[in-house]
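Quick illustration for those who missed Monday's session on complexes.
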Amino acid sequence: MTAVAATTAGPVATPSGEQHGEPVLEVRNLVQRFKVGRRYLEAVSSVSFDIRAGETLGLVGESGCGKSSTGRAVLQMPRPTAGSVRLAGQELTELSGERLKEARRRMQLIFQDPVSSLNPRRQVREIVGEGLSIVGVPKAEVEAKVEAMLALVGLDVSIIGKRRAHQLSGGQCQRVAIARALVMQPEVLVCDEPVASLDVSIQGQVLNILEDMRQQFGLAMLFISHDLSVVHNICDRIAVMYLGQIVEVGPSVAMTRSPRHHYTRALLDSVAVVDPEAEVDDRLLAGEIPSPLDPPSGCRFRGRCPRAEARCADEPPPLVEIEANRFVACHFPLDDPGGSSPVPVTIGASAPRA
Ligand code: SF4
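Prediction with iron/sulfur cluster bound:
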């Protein structure tokens, strides 16, 4: 088994995909701490991953586990406390001023709440074109690009171009937000719970648009969600996060078919299943999530884990590669049943990825 290296020196085994060429985004040992009163809360603890062009990595876990803090630290909003973030080989944590602004243009963010993410005083065409205007693109070119990008996300500029956010549905607002992000031609798109606030009936439409855009533009996408069933459908690989740490990474299908970490198993068991005959073990996610201000020693999941032993309290389990392209942080990982039938997961409106 190969441990994920704690430093960037020398060859490292890093949770990454294999089928998409060189990584566009390389994150190493990312740490984000926030001051809370007189103490420090470590929201992100030594997180490492890669994303390649045209690949979607899902970052999943319960609320407050550090998913959004990770996404924002990648975007340098705010800058991480420690660690490395490289965009196409360029170290972002060392940039400032105009060079940092340019790097941020190449990485865009889609927010959870599409309505509040749009300026209520601006028309749709102004919202979508604002970023281009700021970087000096001529007005006629801005208008042409805005019209084309709105069309790509299924909106007609002649109908909604002069409307404001409050005159749009939630789904239309999220399409506008996607158009605003993609008109800047980013290489990386961070989607932070992009469908969580939308009606189930339109979640699938938005997911399909994101999937189309990923394919069309070869985006490297970080898809943050608390919902493993949504992530399963849209992502090539899944990284599961618990209390600031990644505890398992692997291909989507394999992760849902045979989770190897006890927390991933619990997350899968906690989502609604299509198959009413499927066994659901309610014990696994019993108990409170520990405070990130005072995380447990050893394995952070041990207080909720049915397999915990004394060693789990003494030694933090490193993230190790237990099979090709499969990383798990657990002293006693679950066996791979070797079964061919996937765990049934609620399927959203979009088709599951092969
Ligand atoms: S290291 Fe121990 S406590 Fe942590 S998930 Fe594995 S078995 Fe459970």
